[in-house]
TrEMBL record:
Residues 46-65 are annotated as: Disordered. This is DUF2795 domain-containing protein. The lineage of its organism: Bacteria, Bacillati, Actinomycetota, Actinomycetes, Kitasatosporales. Pfam families: DUF2795. It comes from Streptomyces xinghaiensis. InterPro entries: DUF2795.
Length: 65
């Protein structure tokens, strides 16, 4: 079973994101923000390609856990 991503870690990883954004740019931003590897990998693995805001990213991550 995959490790769950902490919502607070996810919020920190997405800090400064400009929306709409694709998962590639969000994963890159998360790396720049010093996010844990599991957070970056989770963002990269999301089925959805574009996100209109952080709530949409959080919902997608929660559905895949």
């Amino acid at each position: 079973m995959a490790e769950k991503v902490n919502p607070i870690e996810l919020q920190k990883a997405l800090k400064g994101a400009d929306y709409p954004a694709d998962r590639k740019s969000l994963a890159s931003l998360a790396e720049s923000n010093g996010a844990d590897r599991k957070v970056v990998e989770k963002i990269q693995s999301l089925g959805q390609k574009k996100f209109s805001g952080p709530d949409q990213v959080e919902k997608a991550v929660a559905q895949e856990q």
